[in-house]
């Protein structure tokens, strides 16, 4: 927008189960942003894929260990924060607006 000298309004997107500020609140202070834990929290919040007793439908949160193996030559690193709070992906800093590699 700055390059073209125009105003831009960013509007909330209702297609997500949580807002960007809600995700930022969840991520605040975490050294590791393991999405599995975020997904569990969203399932509890919404009741999606949950049994009536507060446990996951089918008795399991996921089957990642059984279903996923790393692709040949891939890294098993996850998003983390450095000692200054910057988000790091495979050793490189992520800045706001940067695409996440591999997605």
Summarize the structure.
With 103 residues, the protein is an alpha+beta fold. Helix content is 23%, strand content 7%. 0% of the residues are buried.
**Total DSSP helices:** 3
Characterize the overall form: extended
Helix share, percent: 10-25%
Oligomer: single chain
Q: In percent, how much strand structure appears in the residues?
A: 5-15%
For the largest sheet, list the strands in their spatial order. 1-2-3
Tell me, rounded to a whole number, the average pLDDT. 79
Report the count of strand segments.
3
Write down the Rg.
Answer: 17 Å
Structural class: alpha+beta
Order of helices and strands: HHHEEE
Question: First CA to last CA: what distance?
Answer: 24 Å
Low-confidence segments, given as residue ranges, are: none
Characterize the biggest β-sheet. 3 strands, antiparallel
Polypeptide structure, described:
The protein is of the alpha+beta class. It contains three helices and three strands; from the N terminus they run H-H-H-E-E-E. Strands 1-2-3 form a three-stranded antiparallel β-sheet, with no helix packed on it. The chain is extended, with a radius of gyration of 17 Å.
Secondary structure elements and their pairing?
Layout: H1 20-27, H2 35-46, H3 64-67, E1 80-81, E2 87-89, E3 92-93
Antiparallel strand pairs: 1-2, 2-3
């Amino acid at each position: 927008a700055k390059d073209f000298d125009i105003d831009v309004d960013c509007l909330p997107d209702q297609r997500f189960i949580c807002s960007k500020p809600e995700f930022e609140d969840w991520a605040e202070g975490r050294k590791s942003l393991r999405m599995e834990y975020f997904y569990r929290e969203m399932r509890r919040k919404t009741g999606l894929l949950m049994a009536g007793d507060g446990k996951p439908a089918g008795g399991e949160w996921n089957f990642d260990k059984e279903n996923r193996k790393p692709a040949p030559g891939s890294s098993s690193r996850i998003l983390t924060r450095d000692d200054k709070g910057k988000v790091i992906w495979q050793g490189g800093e992520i800045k706001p607006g940067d695409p996440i590699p591999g997605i």
